Amino acid sequence: MSQDLYDLLGVARDADADAIKKAYRRLARQLHPDVNPDPEAQEQFKMVTAAYEVLSDPQKRSSYDRGGDPFSGGFGGQGAGFSFTDIMDAFFGGNAGGATRGPRPRTRRGQDALIRLEVDLAEAAFGVSRELKVDTAIRCTTCSGDGAAPGSHPVPCETCHGQGEVAHVQRSFLGEIRTLRPCPACRGFGTVIPDPCRECAGEGRVRSRRTLTVKIPAGVDTGTRVQLSEQGEVGPGGGPAGDLYVEILVAPHPTFTRHGNDLHCVVGVPMTAAALGTTLTLPTLEADLAGAEGAADSGLQTSFELGVQPGTQSGHETVVRGQGVPGLRGGRGDLIVAIAVETPTRLDERQEALLRELAEARGEEQPTGHVKAAQKSMFGRLRDAFNTH
Fold this sequence. Notes:
This protein has 3 domains: 89 residues, Helix Hairpins; 86 residues, HSP40/DNAj peptide-binding domain (Sandwich); 124 residues, HSP40/DNAj peptide-binding domain, CATH 2.60.260.20. The protein contains 11 helices and 16 strands. Helix 2 runs antiparallel to helix 3. About 8% of the residues have low confidence. The protein has a 4-stranded mixed beta sheet with strand order 11-12-16-15. It has a 3-stranded mixed beta sheet with strand order 1-6-5. It is an alpha+beta fold.
């Protein structure tokens, strides 16, 4: 190996042990044969590994710095195989505290689950409790989650002797390189189930349909998710269940449109009532909750009176405070009522005569028309009002 070992690792000659180890791990992740099958990369990986074997050993590094041959006499003075721990550290993040990876647990947390629930606007506004049928994995009651048939139990794997890993030895010009891989016999668990539970086939969980009660808080909107802790999928090996998320979808309402915590509605008013003024009795959103029970027994305010001033024009809006949707964190939005003045389309002779008389009295028999200054917001409200109506 004629190339400078420091250049192979890309470190300065005065680099400390930590910098040398970091440089080697970075190169190992790029050049290891399991990651990069290119033959040139494999040869470079061997040289990088040899360089690290020298520079990570203070005695060999000192000999190399003095011009000696660090490869004479083999590695460690014995020429035998060496542990490949640092290569595994490069891929698995090291073994802090001296702990080994060992067998992986059969019991793992389950996945979260998601279902969608449609509710009415009033239910979303004031809250509701619903029963849901969910189909998820639950812990197997036959084996209590361990996967073994009743009367039996998992036993240590004879291949890896319960370690969950087996050593793989590969010969190279550097000697024998040992790597640890998950045991193929037990799939890395360290144990095998000789007599699996027939109910769950050794999984420790089965699928089942069950009924849950979910409480939807007041103020939710489309897209809101209600979390039910540990009501999702039970994990492999009967592990802890994940969470269940209920995503809310609010159905359209025939009268009200929701914008945040505010409600909007459009009320049609006859031309004569708009001109003379009147008082309207309108329903509140609570009227949807009263239902068949009746307003008298429910204790809810199911209606309110709205005064229409004489001369009210289409698009005029009245804000009714506190009649909107309750907020998730308190408070309540408003109800915005837009007026749509309705012009009569069918008149009998008497009604037509009366309107002509009114037009004559107001000097409007032959109106010339006039263009008002642009008021985008007013025309926008008019367009929305008539489209909704």
